[in-house]
């Protein structure tokens, strides 16, 4: 698995990778990843350290992770 840097611009490289592995990589950077399936609602509150990872039913990341 490719591990991009902590710069959010690099996070597009996570698309197509296993969501749990991406979450583990982001957690190692001191962030708080949250895995959501496509279409699953997230909370409306904003937390800068939270990173949402959107995956398909197979657990594959389908869009670049986002903070909030």
Describe it.
The chain has 68 residues and is of the alpha+beta class. It has a domain at 8-46. Helix content is 15%, strand content 21%. It is built from one helix and three strands. The chain has one helix at 19-28; strands at 32-37, 50-55, 66-67. It has a three-stranded mixed beta sheet, with helices on one face. The model has no long low-confidence stretch (mean pLDDT 88). Keywords: Protease inhibitor, Serine protease inhibitor.
| Most strands sheet | 3 strands, mixed
Helix/strand-derived class?
alpha+beta
Largest sheet, spatial ordering of strands: 1-2-3
Strand elements, count? 3
Arithmetic mean pLDDT = 88
Rg over C-alpha atoms, rounded to the nearest angstrom: 11 Å
What is the percent of helical residues? 10-25%
Counting DSSP H or I runs of 4 or more residues, the number of helices is: 1
In percent, how much strand structure appears in the residues?
15-25%
Low-confidence spans: pLDDT under 50, at least 5 residues?
A: none
Order of helix and strand elements from N to C terminus: HEEE
CA-to-CA gap between the ends?
24 Å
Judging from the principal axes of the Cα atoms, what is the shape? globular
GO molecular function, one term: serine-type endopeptidase inhibitor activity
Family: Belongs to the protease inhibitor I13 (potato type I serine protease inhibitor) family.
Pfam families: potato_inhibit
Keywords: Protease inhibitor, Serine protease inhibitor
